[in-house]
Amino acid sequence: MIEFAIRTLLSEFSLLMLAAAFVLAGSQTRLSTNPDRGFADALFGWLLLLSLGLQGVYTFVVHVFFPAWAAAHIGWAVSPFQYEVGIADLTVGVLGIVGFWSGFSFRLAAAIAGIVWYWGDAIGHVRQMIVADNYAPGNAGSWFWTDVIVPVLLLLCLRVLWTRERTTDRA
């Protein structure tokens, strides 16, 4: 049972971070006494911290320190480029973590980095599915879907927050 839980946590980490962001945003919104802090604002922050931040640190660790496991999960051979991928993951992860506690401008920059990272990964996953017939769980499973969905959610949250920022600036 413990082995199953650990294996699920490791292989479905991106999906778990996305689900946790929704749960925490919902809880935060219900408990908030600040009427200006809506669900989009809360979700945006939690996506930055969990889906970009912790996930970026997690993928850094697995690509750099456990490259054989990471490569097998994605359906690749081990490659020295995994170190560089890991460092890029760490970079966006740090942006997401710092963004959680930052103002709108920094959060916007962190979100842009995350959107480019995730959609770039999604394109790579699709390419691997088509060119290499790679349907490994780390290529075509929940990791692919979170690479597609998280940027959409970030953009939707940004739309709400950008409108609020512009309205506040005019007042």
Give a description of the structure.
The chain is an all-alpha fold and 171 residues long. 85% of the residues lie in helices and 0% in strands. It has 8 helices and no strands. The chain has helices spanning 2-11, 13-31, 39-65, 67-74, 81-100, 104-131, 137-140, 142-170. The longest helix is centred in the C-terminal third of the chain and has 29 residues, at 142-170. The mean pLDDT is 92.
How would a crystallographer describe the biggest sheet? none
How many DSSP-defined strands?
Answer: 0
The helicity comes to over 70%
Low-confidence stretches: none
Secondary structure layout:
Layout: H1 2-11, H2 13-31, H3 39-65, H4 67-74, H5 81-100, H6 104-131, H7 137-140, H8 142-170
